[in-house]
Every structure is written in structure tokens, then in C-alpha cells.
Amino acid sequence: MKIWMIRLAIIGGLFALWQLGSGTLFDSYFVSRPSAIAEEFWGLLVSGRLFYHAVITITEALAGFVCGGFIGATTGILLGRNETIGKAFDPIILVFYSLPKIALTPLFVIWFGIDMKMKIILTATIVFFLVFLNTYTGVRGVSRELIAIMKLMGARENHILGKVVLPSVVTWIFAGLKLSVPYALIGAIVGELIAANRGLGYLLSNAAGQFNTAGVFAAIAAIVLLTAALNLAVRLFERWVMPWQAEQQTREISI
């Protein structure tokens, strides 16, 4: 509770400094004011424009996040369990991982057009590599002794996956998913910034095109809130899938 009070005091102090300093310490044209941003945000909310554009961005980010996460986790498990194929694909995957995915956006526009499909594919591509590498690393780190014991007991590959690999790697998968949340939104919003007439990215670029600084900050605030909501959803899903981890964390806090 004390930590939260300190955080609120710091944030409140920064906003107060921003409000009072805008127009005196720095030019309000470039930084606007928290009161003007709140007014702009409220106007977008009341008019329904914020909800309309946010739903588009959520749909693109969530669809890409789910597809990229599922394919990344599945591919990571399959390549992690097959050492020969995994080593063959290692350099290829690392090359694509090191490539800034945003640089692919113009190609994706040419290949898939400017509709929602392009943003979903771009987002899924970004999420795929983050989840894949976490999952692949987790699978490669599974205890070889446990796998050897399971094989000695006559276990088949599906038994090893279900009893040893998946329980061991699920933490790695969720680490990749949590890391991917902001990148999923980045993929959707960058796609909207480049080619779109709806979504929070479009709202942001439209405000910037009109030199509406308060509108730009209002769109950024909406993106931040959306990121926080998606992060919370992933954490709640993680607790539902792995309730024992939440209990362990609670014990550690109480100790």
C-alpha cells in the first residue's frame, strides 16, 4: 500500500508540473496540457469515436496475438523436440528474428493489401518469433534425465510431451506471451499508421496531421490503457492455467 501511495504521489507530481509548466516553462503547442488532453480524450469517448477505433485495433492485435502465439508455441515445441531439424532451422530463424519486423510492413501492404488482414498477419509475425524463441529455449532446457527415465519406462513421445515437456515449458510460453503484448499492439498500430482509415493508429496519425498535440496524447493514452488491459488479460489467463504459481507468489509475499 505504501509503495502505491509513493507511485501515485510521483505521478501526481509529474502531472502537476506538466500542467503548471505548460506555457511557462515549455511551449504548450508541443506538449499540450493534461487538462486539454483529458478534455480531448473525453470528447473522443463521448462521441463514440474512441470505442469504434479501439475495437478495430483490439481485433487486429488480439487476432494476431492469438495466431502468432499459438503457431510460435507449437513450432517451438516441435523444433525443440527434434534436435536435427531444430539445428538446421536455427540460423534461418535467427536471421529473421534479428530483422526489424516493421521493415516488412511495406511488403505486407503489397502482398496482402491495406485491410485488416494485413495488420493481423504483421502482428502475428512479430508475436510468432518472440513466443517461438522462448518456447524453443524452454524445450531445449527440459531435464534430459527426466526424458531418459520416461523412455526407460516405455513412454512414447506423446506421453513425454504431456507429462514432462509441456509442464516444464508452459512458464516459458507465458513469458513470451507477456513480452509479446506491447509488440502485438505495435504491429497493429504501425500497420494502421502506414495504411488505414480506422483504428487507434489512424486516430494518432490523423491528430498529428492536424497538428493537434492534445489529440495525439489522447490517442497515446488510449493505446497505453489498451496495453495495460491486454497485459492484465494475459496475467489472468496465466493464473487460470497455472494456479500453483499464484499460490507460490502469495506465500512468498506473506513471508
What is the topological layout?
Elements: H1 2-21, H2 28-31, H3 34-47, H4 49-81, H5 83-98, H6 105-112, H7 116-140, H8 144-152, H9 157-194, H10 200-209, H11 213-241, H12 243-254
Helix pairs in contact: 3-11, 4-5, 4-7, 4-9, 4-10, 6-7, 7-9, 9-10, 9-11, 10-11, 11-12
What is the structure about, briefly put?
Helix content is about 85%, strand content about 0%.
Number of helices: 12
* Intertermini distance: 17 Å
General form: elongated
Largest sheet: none
The helix/strand order is HHHHHHHHHHHH
Radius of gyration: 22 Å
| Coarse structural class | mainly alpha
Helix percentage: over 70%
What is the typical, i.e. mean, pLDDT? Answer: 80
Give the amount of beta strand, in percent: under 5%
Low-confidence stretches: 250-255
State the total count of DSSP E strands: 0
Describe this entry's structure for a reader.
With 255 residues, this protein is an all-alpha fold. It has helices at 2-21, 28-31, 34-47, 49-81, 83-98, 105-112, 116-140, 144-152, 157-194, 200-209, 213-241, 243-254. It is elongated and about 75 Å long.
Entry keywords:
mainly alpha, 255 residues, 12 helices, elongated, 0% strand, 85% helix
